[in-house]
Design goal:
By secondary structure, the protein is α/β, with parallel strands linked by helices. It contains six helices and twelve strands. The two termini are 33 Å apart.
Length: 232
């Protein structure tokens, strides 16, 4: 991995001529993303993220923290926050921004710790990669929950991205789950190796949660097929 996402984040933090990120999937064309968006304040966050911030409690784990905006907000509120990301440059940025506990770490490698709230935001199901891997991640997340703990996770039902036929049905690929995408990120003329990224519709997430001994509650829905769920 070239860690282009992390490079863009660190460039923005250090004023090193940041440019827009370019993201592309196997079912969508290239799209520009401003790195500045990853540094948003609470007032600029979508309503689902604001809701997650309001529900956060106790000791908090922010998984895939990126530039650390959610963690910083919660740390300023007085919470004990641990922020993790596999990107070395993203974690460097979090540290430069003042996060007390920011670690280069895969969620699967965390051991012997318990959290009251685990956050997976900005399509938190993405890190699962594929539907087949979802149980492995849910089991790990469950093992990290303190008694009465909660997992706050968001995603989208991307069924809207597929064409409709004359009867209103959707043209969906016959193999695999339609929310399994392949993502490619480009930045400053470099392109990352494609990687799997999972979008889960709520019913599929709920079924996966129940299969792994977790309750699942729909907390809030966004404006465009997106939702925030609570697993406990």
């Amino acid at each position: 991995m070239k860690d282009l996402f992390g490079k863009a984040i660190l460039d923005f933090q250090t004023h090193n001529a940041p440019e827009d990120l370019i993201t592309e999937t196997n079912i969508s064309e290239a799209d520009m993303m401003s790195v500045a968006y990853l540094f948003r304040e609470y007032r600029e966050m979508p309503k689902l993220e604001k809701k997650a911030m309001q529900l956060a409690k106790g000791r908090i784990l922010d998984v895939g923290c990126g530039a650390g905006s959610h963690s910083l907000y919660l740390q300023k509120k007085g919470f004990d926050v641990t922020a993790v990301d596999i990107s070395e440059k993203a974690i460097k940025t979090c540290q430069l921004r003042g996060l007390n506990d920011a670690r280069i770490q895969n969620i699967l490698d965390i051991e012997n710790e318990k959290f009251d709230t685990i956050l997976l935001l900005m399509n938190g199901t993405g890190i699962f990669g594929t539907l087949a891997e979802t149980s492995k991640y849910l089991q790990k997340l469950k093992s990290l929950l303190a008694p009465n703990g909660q997992i706050l996770i968001d995603s989208s039902d991307i069924i809207y991205m597929f064409d409709e036929d004359e009867d209103g049905g959707k043209w969906i690929p016959g193999e695999g789950y339609y929310g399994e995408l392949t993502f490619t990120v480009s930045y400053k003329g470099e392109t990352e190796m494609p990687f799997p990224w999972l979008y889960l519709d709520y019913n599929t997430l709920q079924n996966a949660a129940h299969a792994n001994g977790l309750q699942c509650k729909l907390v809030s829905e966004g404006n465009h097929y997106d939702y925030l769920a609570k697993l406990f």
